[in-house]
Design a protein that fits this description.
CATH architecture of the largest domain: 3-Layer(aba) Sandwich
Order of helices and strands: HHEHEHEHEEHEHEHEHEEHHEH
Number of strands: 11
Number of helices: 12
Structural class: alpha/beta
Helix content: 40-55%
CATH superfamily of the largest domain: Bordetella uptake gene, domain 1
CATH topology of the largest domain: D-Maltodextrin-Binding Protein, domain 2
Largest sheet: 6 strands, mixed
Strand order of the largest sheet: 2-1-3-10-4-11
Shape: globular
CATH class of the largest domain: Alpha Beta
């Protein structure tokens, strides 16, 4: 236990070193060229939509173009590797979902980046639940009915996964309820939703941003949300915990990171700009419309969250018996 605590403390210190240590003197004209905003997901998904909103506001605030660079592949690994290995010169930021920062290290046998060593935390942007949805052709009106159906047809139903975030969220439920549905991997949310709407896959844990319009038009049926409390966007949809699984909760989050060893003045400037952007009424309203809560943490708080959730998901992955691929 002492060794684990020491490791966690050391990780936090390493992650925030460029803030607390003396750094290179900054260029007073920073930024004086375009900023690359890496999004480790394909265009059209929730992370991409949020990146374009925030990137536009960052462009206005810093007076330089913010170029969105979508690199969706392998559960975000390609994009995260690019972000980790970019020059630490203040001109690369990465939209970092919790999956890439804390889960991938336990689900991939060889990860080409070290999330605890290779990134400088800037701020946690949001937190929010997923919605468990099924195709309307599936004869189940409640989560318990779906579980009973899956148990009656073991291995015959499947679910779409676009990365380790919704993979873990689903596998946690499968483990708790003792049923089996097969994962079908997709590179991005867009194609997964197309196949779900066509009935090619039967189930998915997805962002409220994508889920809510399809639920309201009857194209998908919601069975539960993964947060401890119901989401205001779907007040009639029970939580998974309410549906017979007390204590079940899995809430995802997004953040901004830069390459490790980015000079402290650039880190502070980028954090300050995102802090102001997240306080904008327009930005808050648009993010909340996606079913997400705006956070806006300090770099130190994000570093601590990374260490805490890394330990949490390591334990969960061991408990559910998920093997690295």
């Amino acid at each position: 236990m002492k060794r684990a605590a020491c490791f966690a403390a050391a990780s936090v210190l390493t992650l925030t070193a460029s803030i607390t240590q003396a750094a290179e003197s900054s260029d007073a004209s920073y930024p004086n060229r375009p900023i690359r905003f890496i999004v480790p997901f394909v265009p059209g998904g929730p992370s991409d939509i949020m990146s374009r909103l925030l990137g536009g506001k960052l462009n206005e605030a810093m007076g330089q173009s913010v170029v969105i660079d979508n690199r969706g592949s392998a559960g975000g690994v390609v994009g995260f590797e690019l972000g980790a290995k970019a020059p630490p010169d203040g001109y690369t930021i990465t939209m970092a979902a919790y999956s890439g920062l804390v889960i991938n290290q336990y689900t991939y046998l060889k990860l080409p980046y070290d999330p605890m060593r290779d990134f400088q935390p800037i701020t946690q942007l949001t937190r929010g639940p997923a919605v468990l949805v099924i195709h309307p052709s599936v004869p189940a009106k409640t989560l318990q009915e779906f579980i009973a159906l899956a148990k009656a047809k073991p291995g015959q139903l499947n679910y779409a996964t676009t990365g380790t975030g919704n993979l873990i969220t689903t596998e946690m439920l499968k483990s708790a309820a003792g049923f089996n549905v097969l994962p079908i991997p997709y590179k991005g949310t867009g194609q997964a939703v197309i196949d779900l709407l066509a009935g090619q896959v039967q189930m998915m844990m997805m962002s409220p941003l994508v889920a809510v319009p399809n639920i309201k038009f009857g194209k998908l049926r919601a069975l539960g949300v993964t947060s401890a409390d119901r989401t205001p966007l779907l007040p009639d949809v029970p939580t998974i915990a309410e549906s017979g699984f007390p204590g079940y909760e899995n809430v995802g989050w997004h953040s901004i990171v830069m390459p490790a060893n980015t000079p402290a003045p650039y880190v502070k400037r980028m954090h300050a700009e995102f802090a102001k952007i997240l306080q904008s009424p327009e930005v808050k309203e648009r993010i909340q419309a996606q079913g997400l809560e705006v956070v806006g943490s300090t770099p130190e708080a994000l570093a601590q969250l990374m260490v805490k959730d890394a330990a949490k998901y390591k334990r969960i992955i061991q408990e559910i018996g998920l093997k690295p691929q």
